[in-house]
Amino acid sequence: MTKQNLMVSDANPALNMAISASVSNSSIFTATAHKPLPMPSAYIPITRRKVLKNLEINACVDSMRASSPTHPKSTPSRAEEHSSWILHHPSALDMFEQIIDASKGKQIVMFLDYDGTLSPIVNDPDRAFMSDQMRKTVRKLAMSFPTAIVTGRCRDKVYSFVRLAELYYAGSHGMDITGPTTSSKYNKGSKAEAILFQPANEFLPMIDEVYRVLVEKTKSTPGAMVENNKFCVSVHYRCVDEKKWSELAHQVKSVLKEYPKLRLTQGRKVFEIRPTIKWDKGKALEFLLESLGFANCADVFPVYIGDDRTDEDAFKKLRDRGQGLGILVSKFPRDTCASYSLQEPEEVKDFLQRLVEWKQASQRTCSK
Ligand SMILES: [Mg+2]
C-alpha cells in the first residue's frame, strides 16, 4: 500500500493539523507498483497560517469577482434572476414620474459618483473621460439643483475630467470636500475656493508612503495600476488578467498588514486603501446636506447615483434617513441598498436630462 501524507503544521503544536490522504494500490499505480517509489512517504509541510492565508485570498478573489461582474451569462436562470432583481430595483427612467411625485414640495439635491456613472469604465483610469454631452447635461443639472460629485478619485483628478466650477466635489471617498468656485444660486456668491472639509489630513504622509510601496510591490503583476488619490490609494485591476487577481490580492494584502491604520475596501475592478477613520461617501453626503443648510430638514430630497460598492454607504444613509433615493448603475443584479437602477452612464445622462427638462417645465409653469 502506498501512502502519501499532506502535513499542515503550525508553530504551536497544539494547533497542528494533519491531513493524511491514503491512496491504495489502485489501477493507476499498477504499472509502477513493482518499482520502488522515489519518495515513498512525501511529507509536504504547509503552515496553518499559510492555509488560512490562501483561504483569505480565495475569499478576496471571490469578492473581486462579485464587485466587478464582467461576464453576463444569458442562461434561463440568470434571466429569471435579473427579472426578479428589476422588480425590486426598477429602472429610474421607467419610474421617473413616481420619483418626481415623491419629490414634490421638496428640494432635490443631486449626488453623482464619477467612474462608471458619468464616464464609462475604460482600461486606462487616466482616460476615463466624460462625454461633452454628459458635461452639458451635468452643467444644466447644476443650474437646476445643488449638485455634488462624490468619488473615490483625487478631487483634482476628477475636476480635470468634469471641468465644471458650479459643482461641489467630494474626492477621496468624501475625505476632501470643496464647494463651487463660481457663484450660483446654490452658492452664496463667493468665488474663492474654500476647503470645506478634510478629515484625514494627518494620514497624508502615510498615504504617500503606501502608494510608493504598492507601486513597487505590484510591478510584477502585468496591468496593475496604482493611483495616488491624495487621501486614499487605488490599485486598479481593470487590465489585469483574471488568472492574476489572486497574486495581486496577495501583494496588496501583504503591504496592508504593515499599515494597521489603513483599511482595504473594494470597488469595481479596484482595491481602495484608505484611513480607518469613520468617514465614507454616506458621511460625505450628510456633511454636504448640512453645508447646504438641509440639516434636520424634512423638505429635502437627495438623489444619489453610483455604481460602486463604496456608493452603498450613501444608499444606506438615504435609506436610514428615510429621505430621497439611491440609484445603482449596473447591468447585473447586485445586493444593494439603492431603490432604483440604471444600466449604464448613457441611461444616467437620459435620467439627468429628464430631471432638467422637468425642472425647466415646472419653472415655466410657476412664472406664468
Ligand atoms: Mg464608480
From TrEMBL:
Top-level taxon of origin: Eukaryota
Any one of the GO BP annotations: trehalose biosynthetic process
This protein's record includes keyword Cell division: no
GO molecular function: trehalose-phosphatase activity
Enzyme Commission no: 3.1.3.12
Role noted for this protein: Removes the phosphate from trehalose 6-phosphate to produce free trehalose. Trehalose accumulation in plant may improve abiotic stress tolerance.
Stated name of the protein: Trehalose 6-phosphate phosphatase
Catalysed reaction, written as an equation: alpha,alpha-trehalose 6-phosphate + H2O = alpha,alpha-trehalose + phosphate
Polar residues bias: start-end ranges: 65-77
Residue ranges, annotated region (Disordered): 63-82
